[in-house]
């Protein structure tokens, strides 16, 4: 009896010690996680229900579901959601085929491939803010290099307004492709390397041409990894904000306003020239709805890709 | 290999703090370790400032103005080198996010001793006693010297004086005389229709050379419109940013005629390409390079800009009042005091800060040099009498403040900005949807009017705002209260 | 196989090789042009940049860098960037390594709840608006006046990296731990002698990407230093140059600033491009 009791006390002591030990290992990360992930999410969820203009504007006022209702009435917000989709799909539609093609060309141990890979991957290590500034200089209508070349070459006579209402989104997508294609190329190379050489070889022997090999062997075998790559591309496109902020500031006439930047706008001024009055509660509501939309797209994508599997 | 070493050391350090935490009860130790770390850097920082400044009192000044930064900095340096009070002024320029930086500084107790006054930050914190009452420090001489620029309801509230404007600004249409001559425009435009016509003429004749009729810094609609269209509208409609002080309500529908013309003005037929993504400074470089026929901006900055920042021959440009539709005039236009500073009432050095303010920024030599250097148009008679302003001010009559320009009362959305929540886009962005979008003018302005009035009424109902109405308000002779 | 092919290249094969490199040439120019423009532009005069000039600078104006470092205070921002990026790198690698190890190897009270929380935070993405509450919290902890606020905010919750390290650690045979324990190693001993050395590859990935993100970050650094300009990092300082005195007349300084911000990471990339590329796949396959 006594022995057993001692044993259980000992066990409990050991358990306590084990837990303490475990938490000392967890603690540094746990602090960071609480401060930077958990707390802000809880804070944001709370302020969805308040109207608050920040320090010096009185106490936050509870408004119930008003902020959420306002999001659903907010035309500009839903336009920004549409822009997010345009931007996201535009980016994905260009970047994925291009990245795949580059991966196909640069896969394998042929001289020059390694260097070319490194160059194509280069933009992904650079600051999208700094490069946004550079692109702003390159693309501005009145003395940007791009127009200068086009006009010298006689392709256009009047400067193209790259950051104007009709072109801004295209320019933005172009710069996003520049910054992202290397990333997806590397994913594809990793994927192609997993497709066994034997399969490709046997297809060749069967007399399949290059395109046929790609279409009938490589792409189907890439299936699973393609799914992951597409998902990464879609979700990351939904979160792009820095390049938009620096290059176009969401304008002109909100034509490049994406939903992440729209929420940001109610917290911090997008541009130096703008004197915004913060609306933290409404900004929180916008961000929560945006997160839900992004989540729904991801889930929807997963569902569809599963259905596609069963069709195959 | 090196990476491994560094990692090992860091981990060992972390483990040490971690295991300490294990014995003495959790997060507390860790938190203190962190805050100790924080203090050490703070100490290092103060040490650094101490070593550079000896035992001097440091007075921090924040400014938002870049056009006069070089002048102010030179004066500050001079003062730092010569003053006998052992004071060191630290002049900091915040061109970006000025209001936001102040918000954060107020919260963290980092607010400097002296700040360049700006409406939004002033209104936000004046009721919390953040700004010092200058009357407390001013002697009789100083009070009488600045008597002419004290306006109850503007800088004097309930018998307390918070800031003293020394220069003034309003908005004008700037134009390139050379370009006008080349295309045969004899007179600068007097009505808004002429602005459109002239811009179209310049574009059609000179766009091959890269010279265009009209430009405005429309990257930010609010920044662009507040120095241009909104000013003309004040004279044209007698409303202040769409607010009718007689009726006590907003009415943007009166903006329709002007907006129609602005839409033409910003179209490819009239405008400099890329106005949509233009900030004011790039616009000025292009104007100085002779690429732009006309633009509208604040009157106080341009002479200094074309003298120092982007050199342009003074004889090549001039300015006129911003034209209205058909030359209609129903009111006065915006004028604001500039060159004003507020003093942080909660600063431990408030008294010394006032001394600095008085000796540097409110000093007559400073003000004279400021006016002469073309950084602002003086509104103090004694400075105007003594100064020899640059040729710009002698030859260009509309650079001076005229009887078109006057202080206007504040409409609700700026009187209690954070208390009045307008759903949807503000008036500037809404205008953008008209001139850069396909929004229908009539219905959009009607909707805008409804949204502003609704927000105003709700602010009153919630107690976050109050009714603003001025008895016997006359737009041609506005009163502040 | 490839050797054999090369000897018997047919005309169509030649055409396809030429086609490949023409296409790649275009892509490479497209990729490199903005970078080369930045670096070469940083050595031009403003007039060359804004009013037209050759591809190469007419004369090499290295004094632009002097101006950027001295007059535009870039020395200070560079130091800030170095401090912030290395601190973030070390903090991220260290905390992830410890947390990943314990989650992979030990059971403890509340582990399931923690894992669920970490996992859910990976999917809840509220974006940059969370910087406001983080700033507020750090202000309440009186950290906002120091560079620690930025370091903490930039390091972030690290949930994804914790899972990455956890997954990697799970792949290390448990027998090694057990052997060490029999040899008398404590939990810490197992971690430092067995797991840490063996998880070097994955920690290098975490470190490399943390460094890249910290060095390149704009928004977090902007917000965290908004009232303390002397703590600004290079990226923030470069973008702010756009609004500085004379910005429109100083494109050359802007580009010199941009070069100062991108050249260090370019050098890192020159030596570690294989690791970057390999690391990306390691992250993606797990993620």
Automatic annotation (TrEMBL), chain A:
InterPro entries: ABC_transporter_permease (IPR051393), MetI-like (IPR000515), MetI-like_sf (IPR035906)
Gene3D superfamilies: MetI-like
Primary location class: membrane
Topology term for the membrane: Multi-pass membrane protein
Domain (ABC transmembrane type-1) ranges: 81-301
Organism: Lacrimispora algidixylanolytica
Localization, UniProt: Cell membrane
Segments crossing the lipid bilayer: 20-42, 85-106, 118-139, 172-192, 213-238, 280-302
Family indicated by similarity: Belongs to the binding-protein-dependent transport system permease family.
Biological processes, Gene Ontology terms: transmembrane transport
Keywords recorded for this protein, A-Z: Cell membrane, Membrane, Transmembrane, Transmembrane helix, Transport
Protein name, UniProt field: Sugar ABC transporter permease
Pfam families the UniProt entry points to: BPD_transp_1
Recorded GO CC terms: plasma membrane
The keyword Membrane is assigned to this record: yes
UniProt entry tagged with the keyword Transmembrane: yes
UniProtKB/TrEMBL annotation, chain B:
Ranges annotated as biased composition (Polar residues): 29-54
Location of the region described as Disordered in the Swiss-Prot/TrEMBL record: 26-54
Top-rank taxon, per record: Bacteria
Signal peptide (residue range): 1-21
Keyword Amino-acid biosynthesis carried by entry: no
Keywords linked to the UniProt accession: Signal
Coiled-coil ranges (or none): none
Protein name: ABC transporter substrate-binding protein
Originating species: Lacrimispora algidixylanolytica
From TrEMBL, chain C:
Keywords tagged on the record: Cell membrane, Membrane, Transmembrane, Transmembrane helix, Transport
Source superkingdom: Bacteria
Pfam families: BPD_transp_1 (PF00528)
Stored Gene3D superfamilies: MetI-like (1.10.3720.10)
Domain ABC transmembrane type-1 residues, every copy: 78-272
InterPro entries in the record: MetI-like, MetI-like_sf
Cell compartment(s), UniProt: Cell membrane
Gene Ontology biological process terms from the UniProt entry: transmembrane transport
The protein's name: Sugar ABC transporter permease
Protein's organism: Lacrimispora algidixylanolytica
């Amino acid at each position: 009896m006594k022995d057993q009791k001692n044993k259980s006390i000992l066990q409990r002591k050991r358990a306590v010690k084990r837990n303490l030990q475990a938490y000392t290992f967890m603690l540094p990360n746990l602090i960071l996680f609480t401060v930077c992930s958990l707390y802000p999410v809880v804070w944001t969820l709370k302020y969805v229900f308040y109207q608050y203009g920040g320090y010096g504007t009185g106490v936050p006022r509870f408004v119930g579901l008003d902020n959420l209702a306002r999001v659903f009435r907010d035309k500009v917000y839903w336009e920004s959601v549409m822009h997010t989709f345009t931007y996201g799909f535009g980016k994905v539609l260009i970047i994925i085929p291009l990245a795949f093609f580059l991966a196909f060309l640069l896969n394998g141990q042929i001289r020059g491939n390694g260097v070319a890979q490194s160059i194509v991957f280069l933009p992904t290590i650079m600051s999208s803010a700094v490069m946004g500034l550079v692109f702003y200089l390159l693309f501005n209508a009145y003395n940007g290099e791009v127009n200068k070349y086009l006009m010298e070459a006689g392709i256009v006579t009047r400067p193209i307004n790259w950051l104007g209402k009709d072109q801004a989104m295209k320019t933005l997508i172009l710069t996003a492709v520049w910054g992202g294609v290397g990333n997806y190329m590397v994913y594809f190379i990793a994927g192609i390397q997993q497709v066994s050489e034997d399969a490709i070889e046997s297809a060749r022997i069967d007399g399949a041409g290059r395109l046929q090999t790609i279409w009938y062997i490589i792409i189907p075998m890439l299936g699973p990894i393609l799914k992951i790559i597409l998902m990464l591309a879609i979700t990351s496109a939904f979160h792009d904000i820095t390049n938009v902020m620096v290059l176009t500031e969401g304008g002109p006439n909100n034509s490049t306003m994406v939903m992440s930047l729209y929420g940001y706008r109610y917290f911090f001024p997008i541009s130096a020239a703008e004197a915004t009055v913060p609306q933290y509660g409404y900004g929180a509501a916008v961000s929560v709805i945006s997160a839900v939309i992004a989540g729904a797209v991801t889930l929807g994508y997963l569902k569809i890709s599963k259905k596609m599997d069963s069709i195959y | 290999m090196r990476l491994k070493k560094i990692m090992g050391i860091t981990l060992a350090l972390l483990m040490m703090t971690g295991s300490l935490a294990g014995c003495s009860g959790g997060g507390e130790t860790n938190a203190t370790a962190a805050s100790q770390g924080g203090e050490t850097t703070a100490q290092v920082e103060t040490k650094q400032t101490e070593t550079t400044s000896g035992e001097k009192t440091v007075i921090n000044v924040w400014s938002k103005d870049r056009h006069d930064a070089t002048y102010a900095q030179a004066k500050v340096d001079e003062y730092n080198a010569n003053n006998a009070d052992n004071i060191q002024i630290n002049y900091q320029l915040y061109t970006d996010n000025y209001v936001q930086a102040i918000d954060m500084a107020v919260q963290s107790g980092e607010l400097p001793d002296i700040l360049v006054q700006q409406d939004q930050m002033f209104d936000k914190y004046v009721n919390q006693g953040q700004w010092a009452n200058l009357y407390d420090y001013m002697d009789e001489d100083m009070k009488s010297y600045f008597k002419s620029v004290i306006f109850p309801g503007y800088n004097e509230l309930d018998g307390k004086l918070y800031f003293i404007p020394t220069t003034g600004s309003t908005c004008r249409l700037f134009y390139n005389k050379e370009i006008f001559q080349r295309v045969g425009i004899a007179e600068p435009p007097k009505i808004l229709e002429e602005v459109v016509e002239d811009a179209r003429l310049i574009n059609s004749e000179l766009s091959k050379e890269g010279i265009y009729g009209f430009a405005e810094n429309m990257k930010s609609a609010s920044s662009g419109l507040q120095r241009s269209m909104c000013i003309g509208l004040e004279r044209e409609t007698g409303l202040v940013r769409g607010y009718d002080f007689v009726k006590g309500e907003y009415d943007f529908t009166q903006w329709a005629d002007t907006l129609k013309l602005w839409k033409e003005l910003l179209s490819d037929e009239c405008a400099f390409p890329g106005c949509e993504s233009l900030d004011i400074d790039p616009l000025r470089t292009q104007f100085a390079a002779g690429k732009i026929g006309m633009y509208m901006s604040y009157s106080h900055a341009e002479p200094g800009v074309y003298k120092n920042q982007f050199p342009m021959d003074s004889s090549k440009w001039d300015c006129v009042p911003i034209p209205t539709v058909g030359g209609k005039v129903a009111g006065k236009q915006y004028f604001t005091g500039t060159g004003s500073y507020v003093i942080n009432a909660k600063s431990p050095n408030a008294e010394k800060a006032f001394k600095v303010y008085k000796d540097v920024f409110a000093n007559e030599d400073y003000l004279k040099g400021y006016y002469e250097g073309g950084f602002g148009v003086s509104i103090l008679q004694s400075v105007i009498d003594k100064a020899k302003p640059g040729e710009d001010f002698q030859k260009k009559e509309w650079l001076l403040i005229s009887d078109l320009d006057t202080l206007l009362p504040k409409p609700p959305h700026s009187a209690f900005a954070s208390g009045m929540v307008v759903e949807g886009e503000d008036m500037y962005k809404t205008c953008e949807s008209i001139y850069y979008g396909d929004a229908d003018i009539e219905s959009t302005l009607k909707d805008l009017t409804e949204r502003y009035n609704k927000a105003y009424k709700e602010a009153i109902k919630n107690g976050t705002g109050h009714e603003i109405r001025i008895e016997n308000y006359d737009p041609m002779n506005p009163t502040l209260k | 196989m490839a050797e054999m092919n090369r000897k018997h290249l047919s005309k169509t094969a030649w055409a396809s090789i030429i086609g490949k490199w023409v296409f790649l040439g275009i892509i490479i120019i497209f990729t490199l042009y903005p970078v080369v423009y930045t670096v070469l532009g940083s050595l031009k005069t403003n007039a060359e940049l804004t009013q037209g000039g050759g591809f190469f600078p007419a004369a090499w104006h290295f004094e632009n860098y002097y101006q950027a470092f001295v007059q535009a205070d870039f020395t200070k921002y560079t130091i800030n960037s170095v401090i912030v990026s290395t601190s973030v790198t070390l903090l991220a690698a260290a905390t992830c390594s410890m947390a990943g190890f314990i989650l992979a190897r030990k059971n403890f009270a509340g582990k399931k709840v923690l894992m669920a929380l970490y996992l859910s935070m990976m999917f809840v993405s509220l974006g940059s608006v969370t910087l406001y509450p983080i700033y507020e919290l750090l202000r309440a902890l009186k950290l906002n006046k120091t560079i620690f606020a930025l370091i903490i905010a930039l390091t972030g919750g690290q949930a994804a990296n914790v899972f990455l390290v956890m997954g990697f650690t799970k792949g290390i045979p448990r027998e090694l731990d057990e052997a060490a324990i029999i040899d008398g190693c404590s939990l810490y001993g197992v971690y430092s002698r067995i797991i840490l050395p063996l998880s070097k590859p994955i920690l290098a990935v975490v470190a490399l990407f943390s460094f890249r993100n910290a060095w390149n970050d704009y928004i977090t650094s902007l917000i965290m230093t908004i009232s303390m300009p002397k703590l600004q990092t290079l990226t923030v300082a470069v973008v702010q140059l756009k609004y500085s005195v004379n910005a429109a007349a100083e494109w050359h300084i802007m580009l010199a600033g941009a070069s100062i911000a991108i050249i260090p990471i370019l050098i890192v990339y020159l030596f570690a491009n294989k690791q970057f590329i390999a690391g990306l796949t390691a992250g993606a396959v797990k993620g």
